[in-house]
Amino acid sequence: MPRLSPQATEELQIAQELLQQVQLADAHDTRQNPLITMTGTFSAALLYKLLKSGQQQDDRAKFIWGSHAAQRVQFFTWHLLNNRIQCKENLFKKKITSNSTCEVSSQGTETAAHIMLECPFAKVFSELIKVQTDNITSAPDIHKLPRPSYIPATHVNATLEEKE
Ligand SMILES: [Zn+2]
Q: Where are the domains of the chain?
């Protein structure tokens, strides 16, 4: 297979070794998936529960899944902190858009960090709402943004306190 990269060749060999151990039977397949309900449909609720059930949650997971924000906000934030939002950089990688330049500022690649932290528009917005972003440079660290001084700590703590 001359078109395979060395890594792909190695992965193909591993896959072929695994497939040699498989024996097919005439019986119906038994399929198991924790995200499929008894009726055989995909359940987003089960996915949320699975995401929230991790034994070892890092600070980001606690920030997102431990908050009282709406589930759609939690889900977006989870995507944001994992660089999975549909920014132009990701759309460009998927060949959905022909370039990855920020359309708001035309200054740099539109990454999650650019949208939230680096874009001049985002910087003006952060200044207006008095959120100090200078020490945060990447999307996975956005949960570390400091509390603006005009928001009482008790309000933030109540929003982020662990749900039961
Ligand atoms: Zn921009």
A: 66-164
- For 107-129, b/e burial (b = at least 16 CB within 10 A) is eeebbbbbbbbbbeebeeebeee
| Rounded-to-integer distance, Cα 115 and Cα 139, Å | 9
Q: Which residues surround ligand 1, an ion (CB under 5 A)?
A: 102, 104-105, 119
* Distance (Å, whole) CA 106 – CA 87: 14
Give the separation between CA 65 and CA 73, rounded to whole angstroms: 10
- How many angstroms does the Cα of residue 111 sit away from the middle of ligand 1? 9
Query: Ligand 1 centre and the CA of 86: distance in Å?
Result: 15
Structure confidence by residue, pLDDT tens digits, 30-81? 777 777 877 878 888 877 777 766 655 678 888 888 888 888 999 999 999 9
- pLDDT reported for residue 79: 92
CA of 148 to the centre of ligand 1 (A): 23
C-beta separation of 46 from 34 below 8 A:
yes
8 A C-beta contact, residue 106 and residue 92: no
Q: Which amino acid belongs to residue 61? A: A
